[in-house]
Amino acid sequence: MTAVEHPARNGTGGPLRPPARVPFPVVDEVARHCLQEEEPETVHIEVHLPGHLDPARLRTAFAEALHRHPRILMREATGHWYRRRYEWELTADPDVEVVGFWPPGPNALRDARVRALTDAPPLTASPPIRLEVVDEDDLSGGTVLFLTINHTALDGPACLRILATAAELYGGRDNSPAAPPVRTPEPPQDLPPTPSPWSPPARVAPGTPEPSPGNGMLVTELRLPHRPKGSPYTVNDQLMVTTALMLAHWNREHGVRPRPMRITMPVDDRPRDASMPIGNGTRLVEVPFAPEELDPDDMPGLLRRTATRTRALRSLPRPQLGHGAALLTAPWAPVGVRAALTRGLRRAAAPWTSTTLLSNIGRVPYPLDFGEEAGRAHAVWFSAPARVPRGLTVTTASTAGRLHLALRWSRTLLGHGDGAHLRDLFEHYLRTTEVDTTEVNTREGSTKEGTP
After folding, report:
1. Is residue 401 part of a domain?
2. Domain count across the chain
3. Mean per-residue pLDDT for 263-280?
4. CATH code, 399
5. What is the pLDDT of residue 7?
6. 407 belongs to a structural domain
């Protein structure tokens, strides 16, 4: 009998009430409908520490962190084929050992990354995450934490919050989130003209696909782009422009006719402290670009337009996956019927799916300080699933003053050499965004006010 099958006991041999159940939210249900064994929907978080961790202490700290955020202790409840909803069953304790330790070796990091992309923690065991600890080789002497998340249940920011709690419990040091950057409020602006949302956007041109299914990934560390003080755009806007120019360049090289581009941008409004809701908490917006806009010679204008769009899109109230997803997940029919309909609609809507997804975590808000022996994180990478029709996702985060970029792709679309070329293009165009638009803005503002 597995842990899932054991009846709950109250310690005296008598049964307790059945575990509490929570219906799947919209994002979870859509992801559950569209599960695909060849390309598991995992989120990967990779944290590099300068020192080493004690296995027993880490297991104790992580178990306590799970109990401090009990919403993560859940598994998919069993049910009949005709049930109207999927449900999460909340558990008092983990069903499985979450933390595992792997010996160092020449391919230890590569193998851990492969596992994070190909082996999703099951939804049937609580919690649907896995933490692997890999010792680096003797030259570097550090430790790498690989947190693998089943994206049907949870997202990266929620699990990073749990890891920060574990770090505080392990090292005894404050891991409270840093205050978010202060933004100068600006008056609302009209959105500049954008391509029609009914026009199918550009797709990422195929490169050299690999014979095996699944995702490939490349991670790299870059210098944070310079942004002059008082600029009307953010680093996120620079990354958005960089991603668009990278793909426009890639498609030109592969002979693809220019088309409007749309880049999905997750927006997360949750607090980063201990009250953060655990689950899939981001909402998705799409940032459009017309082909003629993607001109690196007009970088000040491109950055200003992008900043205006991203500010306006962030401020618009919108369901996480749009209004159509809420209708699909309403319990008007058994989940099996709605799952088939959802998969069919997803295939039909594939030509209108955005070109790619850029998930910018921004500055990692927690120190991730595991104490004197293990130390504080000096690099943190995230990666998001990259199934076709997008086939490529771009994920960025900054730690210790450096930008950590992960490119993740579907192997049915791209190969490792393609990923390396896209990385080079990303780095090139990121540097081109380092322009000072404040002078241009001041001059334009003075002209509008009638000042010579």
Report:
1. yes
2. 1
3. 94
4. 3.30.559.30
5. 39
6. yes
The CA angle 433-436-438, to the nearest 5 degrees, is: 130
Under DSSP, the state recorded for 224 is P
* Tokens (6 digits) for 137: 């080789």
- Check if the beta carbon of residue 400 is closer than 8 Å to that of residue 378: yes
* Integer Cα distance of 385 and 139 in angstroms: 32
Q: Model confidence over 281-311: pLDDT tens digits?
A: 999 999 999 999 999 999 999 999 999 999 9
Region of residue 304 (left: phi > 0; alpha: psi -120 to 50; beta: else): alpha
* First-to-final CA distance of the chain: 82
Domain assignment present for residue 52? The answer is no
Alpha helices in 200-293 (DSSP H): 235-253
- Give me 225's structure tokens: 């782009």
In 3-state terms, what secondary structure has residue 296?
helix
Q: Phi first, then psi: what are they for 437, rounded to 5°?
A: -95, 0
Q: Which amino acid is at 423?
A: R
Pairing of strands 99-102, 283-289: unpaired
Which residues, 6 or more positions from 320, have their beta carbon under 8 angstroms from its beta carbon?
A: 25, 26, 27, 280, 282, 283, 284
| pTM for this predicted structure | 0.90
CA distances from 426 to 32, 236, 382, 407 (A): 33, 14, 17, 10
The stretch 95-117 carries a mean pLDDT of 95
Greater model confidence, 429 or 1: 429
Give the amino acid at 332. Answer: W
Which stretches within 273-361 are classed as H helix? 299-315, 323-328, 335-348
**Geometric angle at alpha carbon 239, from 266 and 356, rounded to 5°:** 55
Q: Could you list the residue range(s) of the whole structural domain that residue 311 is in?
A: 215-331+350-360+386-448
Q: Which residues contact 37 (CB under 8 A, 6 or more apart)?
A: none
Burial of 368: CB neighbours in 10 Å, binned 0-12, 13-18, 19+:
buried
pLDDT at position 161, please? 97
Distance of CA 12 to the CA centre of its chain: 44
